[in-house]
Amino acid sequence: MAQNEKTIPVVIVGGGQAGLSLSWYLCREKVEHVVFEAKTACHSWNDERWDNFCLVTPNWQCELPGHPYQGGNPHGFMVKQDIIEYVKGFVDSFSPPLQEHMAVTSITRHENGGYRVVANDLVWRAKHVVIASGAYQDAVIPGYVSAIDSSIFQVHSQDYRNAAQLPEGAVLVVGSGQSGAQIVEDLFLEKRKVHLCVGSAPRVSRFYRGRDVVDWLADMHFYDLTVDNHPLRDGARDKTNHYVTGRNGGHDLDLRKFAKEGVGLHGALETIRDEVAHFQPDLKGNLDDADKTNADIKKSIDAYIAREDITAPTEAPYVPVWQPDGSNAPLDLKAASITSIVWCIGFRPNYRWIDVPVFNGANKPIWHRGVTDAPGFYFLGLPWLHTWGSGRFSGISRDAAWLASRITGKDVPVA
User: Fold this and answer.
1) pTM, to two decimals
2) Please, what is the average pLDDT of the chain?
3) Per-residue pLDDT band at 31 (split at 50, 70, 90)
4) What b/e readout covers 143-175, taking b as 16+ CB neighbours within 10 angstroms?
């Protein structure tokens, strides 16, 4: 044993809602453990979201273990401060063994069994290690950004806060996933001229036939669909989330409607060279594919309503309100008065500090329900860890209870 090495049964890396959910179960089972958090328990909600951020899932889906949503608006959508207070309330509800500002810098196999975990230059030996640090550590920004004129302000979505943060002028938003689509609306409502590079993200309606689409899909057990039963299998984990919003009670985000009202839509960004943006010729296809996904979801709801003989109002089919002209012209940033670029093209996980054989050739972790082939080594809180609901407040508790069962060797019921 190394000098001053401490021994503990379980180390959880990451003090967000996933790591804390597992801690809740281990506390209930009286299993000694520690939760290491590099920053603070709520830092991602507080420090990496824009001012008008809100959940896209309804409040009733917030079901952390022993801490369900208890407010008066179950079908509403928590705004940023509400989310922070909800997570803080969860922490306060059971006082986890949380050590904040403890960055784990190395995990290796211990020569005497288990794992050696180094955090803030201190060393622990643990029989079980759970990586609950999420999949969003390294912001993705193209390598050529340094070649873009320094007079153009650039910011990643995790550092975007509000329109006032950006210099006056038009804004180019790159990426149309959940963050990109919502940030476009945030800027549009502040009367900013916006251009959007539209990628392959699908969309979904907020409401359909009298109910939130999430309510319908929950009744249809869509969020219980396991990755093993998904047509794409592990490929489901690479799919982009559907864009929609919970802002002001929730509504559709229809990029065609934005275009009709003045937002410039372009295909996926190919490159920016000499302050001229070049796009892929896929705008029409991306818009059509997003609408098709939405239509297919509605068809599945229609079939469920018919099968279960449910009385529900009917709704006319969606009719596109705008069509691109197919020009795919490059965009001269200076000529278009663009003074800012907001990069909304996602994140990459950072596992460089883990030296344990649990990764494939692409450096992606391999697991089944969070359990790896390395004894006592687990992942938690990742999209499609087991089901579509795994990345949501509603699914984390189930995944955490499962891992608690693997750690304790006994059945741990879901709270």
Assistant:
1) 0.95
2) 95
3) very high
4) eeeeebeeebebbbbbebeebeebeeebbbbbb
